[in-house]
Amino acid sequence: MNHTGSELPGDVAGQRPFILSSSCPASFELTESGACSLVTRYQFYDSVQQRGVGGTQTALPKHRSGFTAQQIDLGRYLFFDPLLSQDGSLSCAGCHHPELGFSDGLGRSIGIGKEPTGRGAPSLWNMTFLTSFFWDARADSLEQQARGPLYDKKEMANTPAQLLASIRSNAYYPEMFAQAFPGLDGPTLEQLYSALAAFQSSLISLNSRYDQYAHGFHQALTADEVAGLNVFRSFVARCAECHQPPLFTNNQVAVIGTPEPDGLPFDSGAEKTFNSAKLRGGFKVPSLRNISKTAPYMHSGRFKRLRDAVAFYNKGRGHAVPKNEQLQLHWHIREPKLTDEEMDRLVDFLGALTDESLLPQIPQVLPSGLKPVQSLPVAETAGEQKVLATETVATITTSNVTINQGN
């Protein structure tokens, strides 16, 4: 993991200040203006024009920039600190764990009330390139997105007044905000949202074996993975039409007719966001990067295995749409009639999109004194890892409630 910031051992750093990092995260360089600027090989490529959908050496979309190293590091502390929740039991990382692809291994995330929310936690990798957020695309900036889980009664359940009071009354955060936003009065909620956006903008995953292959090192992929890439890009499967490389999403909403888990009511998705019946049952096209780390799949975890999610697209247009629903399915959703071999090769290829080389460092000590999400035990299977993740988060939640009640 990348090392950032200065974390001091002891009883909340032994009453000594937290010094925010002045160094940009890996893959970022410090500009003359003092901001951290992302550097990738993709910046040397042209757009997707004349390259063909699914082409390898194509440019990434525009991304957020202009954050300082200190703002990114402040956002890192805030992201892992349960102080941001109403009862001090849940941090952003509780639902977006670094070792689970910045998701949580659950079909529907669990908030402070211990009840499932409406949908699963999307991965946060490469958020800096996105133009809309949440499964239903209801936010158009990272700052706006941050307000959602912070104040949602089923998630972190805080209020703006309590959150601001908690930050301002903390022994360390006011000075840390002053380091990140020098010359400005604070802390303010806008600064908090900006710091969270800065940290999330630094979560970059662009050095998978697929990327090495795309940049010219063709030995990076196995023969089976290359075969899967060819299926992925084919006119028959048409995966790349929506999951467009190199980001592996087109930043759009699509109605694909995915079913809900048994017993759950139909989710209207982006219909409410855009007040459009055409988008009933529509959801953001997620990036496929690190997809092997983020099971279960779809907006509410309908499919436990990646192979099952691939098979869904192969079963025919609208096969899972409830009988009482008339959805306007995306025109790309057809019936490719892939063989079992072709679907297996697709899964092989999707595994080559994993890159966690720039995982941020989880703070060992937080300004609040509460416990951050810890690293997960090594599990022999992905399924075991998901169980361990749930148990780990539950243990930390219980511990933080105890600490909070004692203050």
UniProtKB/TrEMBL annotation:
Keywords, in A-Z order: Heme, Iron, Metal-binding, Oxidoreductase, Signal
Any one Pfam family match given in the protein's UniProt record, by short name: CCP_MauG
Record's GO cellular component terms: cell envelope
Highest taxon of the lineage: Bacteria
InterPro entries the UniProt entry points to: Cyt_c-like_dom, Cyt_c-like_dom_sf, Cytochrome_c_Peroxidase/MauG, Di-haem_cyt_c_peroxidsae
Start and end residues of each Cytochrome c domain: 70-204, 223-354
Subcellular location: Cell envelope
Record's keyword annotation contains Signal: yes
Any one GO molecular-function label of the UniProt entry: heme binding
UniProt key word Metal-binding: yes
Coiled-coil stretches noted in the UniProt entry, renumbered to this chain: none
UniProt xrefs under PANTHER family: BLL6722 PROTEIN, CYTOCHROME C PEROXIDASE-RELATED
Name of the protein: C-type cytochrome
Organism in which the protein naturally occurs: Thalassomonas actiniarum
